[in-house]
Here is the input.
Amino acid sequence: MSDKYENPLCKRYASVEMQRIFSDEVKFSTWRKLWIALAESQKELGLLITEQQIAQMKQFAFDINFSVAEQLEKETRHDVMAHIKAFGQQCPSAQPIIHLGATSCYVGDNTDIILHREALFRVKKLLVNTVERLARFAEKHKALACLAYTHFQAAQPTTLGKRAALWIHDLLLDIEQLDFVLQGLKLLGCRGTTGTSASFLSLFEGNHEKVAALEKKIAEKLGFEQVYPVSGQTYSRKVDYYILSVLSGIAQSAYKFSNDIRLLSHLKQVAEPFEKGQVGSSAMAYKQNPMRSERIAALSRYVTVHALNPALTASAQWLERTLDDSANRRMVIPEAFLAVDAILSLYISIVDGLSVYPKVIKQQLSQELPFMATENILMAAVKKGGDRQLLHERIRIHSLAAAKEVKENAAPNDLLKRIVADKTVGLTQKEIEEICTAENLCGRAKEQTEEFLAQVQKMLSQSQNKELLGIEVEINV
Here is the structure.
């Protein structure tokens, strides 16, 4: 227990892997890697920096004296200067050249891009595994006829596998957007105070080629092919907006899925995992609430609203640099990633443990099936020589009468008996039964699912996606 507020995203929801990405250990060791890359590149381009200085910096790249840095930040009110001085205390021979020519955003912004890229890879891994789990589910239930709804009113039948294909399709769109953003990520580079690289041009005595080469070398050492072609002191905050837009899109897809599961749970057609000792309600002992789906909904709203922050931040930047983005970004972006991590972990856990109740599904479909079959019955009766207009009126009358009995007296749906008994319609019991099989009314739901899953499997079999498969998730509470 603690007497201080602790972020529930870390304490209750997000994975250890995502928390590690945004930890102080990773953040500040990345700062040090950037300082080392800067010094190495400057040395390679002719500045008087020694191997001993670089070796000393590397020695303490992951051995961060946090307590010293914390005390120095209280004195300087500047996090980057505090860590420069703390690093310098550990590397006295390198102290004169640490952060040479750079400004705070050299470590701050470049680190953000590096961490955001790693976090996006983590999200993609979760997405690909969610799709793979859903594809298995869709394949298993591709022919299981169920009642489809529009406006949450009974419509035509579909199959449970086809419904799962809709969930998958949303996630595939999210993967496309994520890949697009990932491919476009670049480092800020080393641009100095206003993005003109003036300090580095001075260090290299006016040699523009060396300044350009410096950025390229640093990018390569950090695993990037390019830097953004122009910038102020920071990279464009629109990049943050694009990243949060991807996370918002994933949250929207998961929210839709969670709502569907909640509706289907109410209908008793499916049930999300409910563990042996799990309690559904402190008052109602019998309750088995769809807790995981509800949590997805709650966290998804959080992410979707968070996506507004970078939009406003990007809009409000002043000229080459202002600092009203800093406090906002250090909360909003990591929290959005942590929440999406939790959302997709919950998504996978639901799919892995989702119970399906075919008998309930069949019963509810059978109750509505006679109404849905009336158009097919009408066509069959016309083919046998009936008058379309007369038949339509007779079927309409029978449909209204049967619906009234169902609603007012909770009676079984006897529409088909009424139609068989009507000599005007002219169809036998056997003919009616053949028309009214669910399989005849599901259209191409099964075939569409099969065709779509073939595309999904092709995507999953690509090497860059295949190597991401096999993730296991853990739900903390």
